[in-house]
Amino acid sequence: MEAIKAQVRNQTTGNSVKVLRREGWVPGVVYGSDVSSQSIQINGRELDAALRHQTTNKPFRLDVDGTTHDVMVNELQRHPLQGNILHADFKKINMNEKMQTSVPVLMTGDPELGVATLVRHNVEVNCLPSNIPGSFLVNVDGFQIGDVVLAADLEVPAGVELLVDPTEVLISVLPVKAKSEESIEAEQEAEAVAEKAAAE
């Protein structure tokens, strides 16, 4: 299980948060049923590195000045343009108790005909934190127009309960939409302008 080190954050004013971020820290908070809300700060690079190794729906071990908590990321706030993490909320969990969480549905491969479309991007599961799948990966190679992937088609690991109707459609293969006359004319005009600019 991924481990993240953090420090207790004593000052919570707006100016101190700005200073923290300039110095490479990410302000955050950890809370749970048996722990009062605690303000913390985490090294931004270390947090980014940890999240690259696993998805945010998997449990972490958070070490706050020597005190460890088993947690999950409850919310991440990111900069709308730069994408860096601005704030992180961690929720303490019990590794011996089942919990409900959301798992992303991902696609790989290409249909033989048509375009594969995700009808549902996430599904709910119930399991122990250590058994939470990082994702459900579906290979759509060779699919045809009209083919669908149902919740019942997912490869669900042992110990994981899928909390969705087995007949619910997750992926559907649709025909490629024909381009409208307006879009074709717009493309032709854009190409003509580009050719004229290149000639000049």
Automatic annotation (TrEMBL):
UniProt cross-references to InterPro entries, sorted A to Z: Rbsml_bL25/Gln-tRNA_synth_N, Ribosomal_bL25/Gln-tRNA_synth, Ribosomal_bL25_b-dom, Ribosomal_bL25_C, Ribosomal_bL25_long, Ribosomal_L25_dom, Ribosomal_uL5_bac-type
Keyword tags: Ribonucleoprotein, Ribosomal protein, RNA-binding, rRNA-binding
Domain of life: Bacteria
Annotated Gene3D superfamilies: Ribosomal protein L25, beta domain, Ribosomal Protein L25, Chain P
Domain annotation Large ribosomal subunit protein bL25 beta: ranges: 98-175
Subunit structure: Part of the 50S ribosomal subunit; part of the 5S rRNA/L5/L18/L25 subcomplex. Contacts the 5S rRNA. Binds to the 5S rRNA independently of L5 and L18.
Role of this protein: This is one of the proteins that binds to the 5S RNA in the ribosome where it forms part of the central protuberance.
HAMAP family assigned to the protein according to its UniProt record, in alphabetical order: Ribosomal_bL25_CTC
Name of the molecule in the record: Large ribosomal subunit protein bL25
Organism: Brevibacillus parabrevis
Gene symbol of the encoding locus: rplY
